[in-house]
Structures are given as C-alpha cells and as structure tokens.
Amino acid sequence: NDKVRKVQKVRVVCWINTCNANLETKAKAIKETWGKRCDVLLFVADQTNNSFPTIGFNTTEGKLRMVPRIFKAFDYVYRHNLDDGDWFLRSDDDAYVIMENLRYMLTSYNAAEKWYLGGAYDFGPKQGFNSGGASFVLSKAALSALYMRAAGECTNEYKTVGRDDIELGRCLYHLGVNISDTRDILNGIKFQGMDSISEYTISFHHLTIDELYTFEMLLYQIRPYGVVNKLHDLNKSNKMTPVS
Length: 244
Fold this sequence. Notes:
Layout: H1 2-8, E1 12-17, H2 23-32, E2 40-45, E3 55-56, H3 67-81, E4 87-92, E5 96-97, H4 99-106, E6 116-118, E7 120-121, E8 129-130, E9 136-139, H5 140-157, H6 164-175, E10 203-204, H7 209-220
Parallel strand pairs: 1-2, 1-4, 2-3
Antiparallel strand pairs: 4-9, 5-10, 6-9, 7-8
C-alpha cells in the first residue's frame, strides 16, 4: 500500500522529559513500548545517567523549573540529531504516543516549512501553546529557526521559572512559527483527546506505568477475530501557509 509506505518513511526523533527517579519505572516503560518506534529515542533528565542512558543538563527538578531544560534539550537535538529526523517530538514520561498515527498526520505537512503541531491551549502566549506533556512536534525547519535565530534571545527574554511548554510557545510565536489546527476532517481531537476523539488519535497523557503497558498490549498484541480495519483518509488539507 503506497499510503502506508509513505507513512513509514516519516522520520521522527523523540525526546522524553523524565527524571532520574523515574528511569526504572516510567522511562523504562516508554523504552519498552511506544518509544521503540521512534527513529531516535532520547531521555532528558536532571542528571546524566550513562547506563540507562539519559542526557542531563544539571537543571532543577519541578514542574515550574523546566524552562531552561526544554531549550537545552532542543539545542542538544539540533546539534546532535538534526540529520536523523524530519520531525522532533517532545513528550513526558507518563504519555503514550501512537507513532503510526503521528507519522500519518505528518504526511500532510512539509518538514521544510515551519510547523509546531500538538494539542493547543488558548492561554499563555498570544497564539496559545501546545501541551508538552501530551506531546508536540516541531518540523526540521522550525527547530532550525529556533536555534539559528532565537534560542539564546528567548532564554534571556522570557521567564526561566514557569511552564516550559508555555515559554517555548512564546518563543516560537516571536519567530512566526504558528500553532496549527491538528483536528481531523471530522473535528476529532488527536492529542490528549477523550471527548470527540479522532479515529487516528495520537497521544494520551497522565498515564500510570500499568496503563502504558496496557495501551501497548491493546494496540499491538490483541486483535478482535473477524474484524478488519480499513484505512480512512481523515487528514485535513493544510490551509495555512507557514512563515518561511
């Protein structure tokens, strides 16, 4: 199937926000489940752990102290993994991402253009922001713009204490990298959607370790006998022209 082959060619580098205390629990669960479907899987924590491994930036733990880490993590990915992917995903260690559905959605976008895709909230920066925990992706062009033009400026200008996803959204807005509507043609929600959920939903957040493994089992190990899943094209055509 040509559509399936096109989806499989989409390259995604994933970095997971975690902490050293969660390495043998939540982070391990992601490594053993959906994380193995990333083209590159990285774990970012407070301290480097060479045996797991993790990338550490000596940042302070705490939900409202993650702003320096998100910029340092994307800086690391830009310098070390830019050529490994077309898209760059940030997720939390209590989220489950259906990578096939993410890749399918991304076939409607051009990674050479500036895209910032995820589950949007309409507070914080003027354009809103995409939730980091429920996962979001930057195109290669958006990641390159972030570090060729404004990373240092953003870390100096915006708050270092606060929500990292809000401050990143503020920086991207400064660059003209806008949020896009990721709902499908039936208005189904793809990121952390429980109401009006898309048939090709992408992520779920705030999951327990057992739930991470349960999602894996239900999606990849169990099949209802006699039920054949047909492929439906539910992607919207892109109406927004990103800033080049």
